[in-house]
Each structure stands twice: as structure tokens, then as C-alpha cells.
Amino acid sequence: MDEPLDQPSGVPGESPQGKTGVQLPLWPQESAAPDSTSEAIHGETLADEPVPGETTGQAVPWSLRDLGGFVLFAVLSFLLANVAALTVFIWLRDTLLWETTVEEVFHKTSFVVSMQIVWEVLWFLFIYFTVTRKYRQTFLLAIRWAWGPAGRLHYLLAGAGLALGAQMLFSVFPSEKQLPIERLFSSAESAYLLAVFGICVAPFAEELVFRGFFYPVFERLWGFVAAVVITALLFAFVHMPQLSGGWLEILAIFGVGLAFSYCRGKTGSLVPPYLMHLAYNASLFVWLYIATDRFRSLGNL
Q1: Is the pLDDT of residue 22 over 50?
Q2: Could you say which of 9, 118, 140, 242 would form a disulfide bridge with 145 (CB–CB 3.0 to 4.6 Å)?
Q3: CB distance 158 to 279 below 8 Å
């Protein structure tokens, strides 16, 4: 009777004799019990909980070509979505005799947030089908959606600490001009809408793209340090239109991206930077909520 596959024998790190095509887990297992929660994906066994400081970028099957395809898709989908929205708006304006101009509607918070949500859903679908259909991987395992080595509270506190540091920096060196993102906070309603988007949607979508999809490819090709720096630069670049003219704010978001990417590399998991990102955004909105009397005095900041 054949020896069970999950009971390797022989030299550690090598396939068991006579069991060709079987590899040991990328991350050490706490025990070799039969009820281990690890799963096999295309001959690679992934543990549920990664080891601190161990990088795992070499495990993903997608490549720079797939990242280039994502960038092209993101640009084209953004252009097409805006053209489609503009066409629908013009038709409705002519039909219902609206007096709102095209320029005005593209600066409305509800429109901007709706477009961003649609765009980020398309990001998710592109990555999801690339992982599950093109490479036939289990999605959550492939993007390393696993709890990190430390407790969840550690990452939430780290994200809140980053937000506190950013607010202290902006208080000492306030921006001399209004940033594009500040114009979206035109009313209490718009602030609530931005808060829901910034807490419930943006952290997962952005971490999926930068730390789940891009980071492991850069790490595999150029190493940990390069992957951290490049993903942080891309993270800051995507936020530049919102922060145009605020170089200190752009520098700050680059620093925040460095922290998220560093956490992703050292834990080998996407959940810790997601929790940091979630706490960072939530802390900023809580501070704004308190400082503006529940978003009722936004113009006084």
C-alpha cells in the first residue's frame, strides 16, 4: 500500500523517494497532523499562516506581462467608463431638461465615488479571473489572504498610529492650497459617502492590486527591498490626482505605502497590510468627523 503523501520521509526539503511531483510546503507547518488546514495548489502547498520575515513572492504564477495587462485594462476601462457615463448623462440632461453642466457633474462627489467603485470592481474582476481562470488557482490562497503571525489588533493599532503621525505632520506643515480631494467634501452627505467608500471599499481594492497582485511579482524578480519601494511608488502615483499640488501629502502617502508593503513582505500575507490600511483610513475619517462637528463645519478646516 502506498505511503500517504502528507507523511514525507527522507531528507528535509526534498521530495519523498518515489513520490515525484510532490513538494514540501512553502511555509513550515506547525504539525504534520492529518487535519492540517493547508491546501495544494498546482503542486505547491500553502499554509494558512505564514512565518514572520519569510518572503513568498516566488509562489505566484502570474508575471510582469499580466501586470502590464492589468495596467492597460485599468486605463481603457477608466476611459470607457467615463465616456459611457458622459453619454448617459447628456442623454438624461437633454431628456429631463437638467441645467447641470458636464463639468459640474464630474465634480459631484456622488458621481466620482460611483465611478471609482465601478472602476475598482473591474480591477477585482480582472485579477480574480486572471488568478482563477488563467492560472486555475484558489483565489484567496493565491493572493495570500491569511492571518499574519501577530494578532489583528497589532496591525489595526499600527494603521491608526500611521494616521496619527500623518495628522501631526499636516498640522505642523499645513497645505497652502486646497487639494482636489478636499473639494469633494462639499457637504456632510458627501463626507459620509466618502467615509463609507474610504473604509469599506478602498482598503481591500487597493491592497489587492498593490500588495496582492503586484508585490509578489516584483519580489520574485528583484527582491524584498525593490518590491517594497516600487509598490509604494505606484501606490503614491495612483493617489497623486487627489493630492495634486500637495507634495507633503504625496510624500506622506508614499511613506504609508512603504509601511503597508513592508508589512506585506515581512508577514507573507495580505491581511496585515489590509488591516493597517483599514485602520489608517478609518482613523482619518474619525478625526475629521470629530474636528468638523460631525462633518457639519467642513469649511472651517
Answers
A1: no
A2: 140
A3: yes
